[in-house]
Amino acid sequence: MEEHTGRRLRLKRLYKHNAERLFIVPMDHSVTDGPFARNIDYDRILSDIAEAGVDAVVLHKGRLRALSEDFYRATSVIVHVSASTKYAPDANEKYMVASVESAVRRGADGISVHVNLGSETEPRQLRDLSQVADSCEQAGVPLLVMLYARGKRIHAHPVNETLAHAAALAADLGADIVKLALPNDVGEIAWITARCPVPVIAAGGAKLDERSFLEFVQRVVLGGGAGLAAGRNVFLSDDIVSLGRKIRACLDSRPRLFPAEKQVLRAALATNAGMRLSLAPEPSNA
Predict the structure, then answer these.
(1) What percentage of the chain exceeds 90 in pLDDT?
(2) Which residues of 78-111 are buried (b: 16+ CB within 10 A; e: fewer)?
(3) 3-class DSSP state of 129
(4) pLDDT tens digits for 79-113?
(5) pLDDT score at 255
(6) 285 pLDDT exceeds 60?
(7) Where is average pLDDT lowest: 43-57, 202-216, 251-265?
(8) Which of 187, 83, 87, 85 is nearest to 125 (CA)?
(9) Are 229 and 179 in contact, with CB atoms under 8 Å apart?
(10) CA neighbours within 13 Å on the CB side: how many for 45?
(11) Looking at the annotation, which residues are catalytic?
């Protein structure tokens, strides 16, 4: 019998619409920044997300009480086990607020943990990640690691080298899927994704206009990204269902590469061209 069968089966079940690319909507922002919707609007957002072709949402444990059985049938639920607030003395600190065991008892299909690489509390955050990965292995549930490069020393290193390091680190410590704040350039995305042994999905980042955001999703796909984890760009949309379906179509497509783009992509994969840029600060949540 294949080892870790339960975990592998649950990982495959996260991919509800496409076996290769995930569409995740993180909705853990209310712990960090406060509520982003009234209760009645929150229920509508969940309903629209289920209708839009989203594979999974990321929530904190208490929110699972608000989910219906119909929602669970349409969408997987990933429980975020780390947190911080905008009021904390150290904005880059993350600490554990749930166990894998309690999340699974509440109905989690997967687990999510956030790590800020380069932060003052990086050693403890990495230790927490390792322990969560061990618990996920024991419980047979997949692990999504949201890894951001933040801290005073980070800016001295090339951005894409740091992102590739972050992705490899997450994989080495037990992640099944890695979420990164990927760059906008297709060649740079390809350079990063080619160096990680597990799927890399893109963070949605700050709110963009619809056209710019969909163009970014297309670049992620062209660069070998395994999907998208976008919160504010989805749940703050005036038409979640319409935008979600457009994102789903981008993720499910096989975009055409023009000859010039192919040349750039080959060069990025064959050289260290993807390591050149300096790191720019990232927003606190995606």
Answers:
(1) 74
(2) bbbbbbbeeeeeeebbbeeebbbeebbebebbbb
(3) helix
(4) 999 999 999 999 899 999 999 999 999 999 999 99
(5) 63
(6) no
(7) 251-265
(8) 83
(9) yes
(10) 21
(11) 28, 148, 179
Q: What are phi and psi of 96, to 5 degrees?
A: -75, 135
Mean pLDDT of the chain: 88
H or E, element range at 12: helix 5-14
Distance CA 211, CA 200 (A): 23
Residues facing residue 115 across a β-bridge: 147
Strands 22-26 and 56-59: parallel
Let me know: does 277 contact 160? Beta carbons within 8 Å: yes
What's the rounded Cα separation, in Å, for the pair 212 and 203? Answer: 14
**Alpha carbons 195 and 8: distance in angstroms, whole number:** 22
Asked if 113 contacts 132 with a C-beta cutoff of 8 angstroms, the reply is yes
List CB contacts of 177: < 8 A, sequence separation 6 or more: 22, 142, 143, 144, 145, 198, 199, 200, 201, 226
Contact in structure between 25 and 243 (CB atoms under 8 Å): no
Residues 6+ apart with CB under 8 A from 263: none
Tens-place pLDDT, residues 240-273: 999 999 999 999 987 655 555 555 556 655 655 5
Radius of gyration of the chain (CA): 18
* Enclosing H/E stretch for 245: helix 240-252
